[in-house]
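User: Hi! I'm working on a homework problem where we have to compare a predicted structure to a textbook description. Could you give me the structure for the chain below?
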Amino acid sequence: MLFLQFGKIVNNPSFICALKLCRAADPTQYSVRVGEHSRATVEAAEEDYNIAEIIMHPQYQRWDNDNDIALLRLSRKVTLKTEVNVICLPVAGSGEPVERFHRVWDKYHR
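Assistant: Happy to help. Predicted structure tokens:
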């Protein structure tokens, strides 16, 4: 079992991550670990979640990492706490450019 730790909770129980981390479409091969801030220690906020479904971006291109994003539907809702919470995404039609989200995503996940 592989743990996907570099992603964000977007709409509990949905999680987004870099698609390149999900090389196989079989959700049983992965788990999501939330609350992990240091792999050197076990933290009280850490909790593991099974993945019910992996939704890959239909236009993902492995050779240049375009559209390198996947939505993971977790098997249950994440327990939110001080160290674990959802991120805010632009509201459709709000005028907030989606490109800004992609730039931030690329900065931390390439």
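For your comparison, note the following. Residues 20 and 62 are 8 Å apart (CA to CA). The beta strands are 2-4, 7-11, 14-17, 30-34, 47-56, 70-74. Good luck with the assignment!
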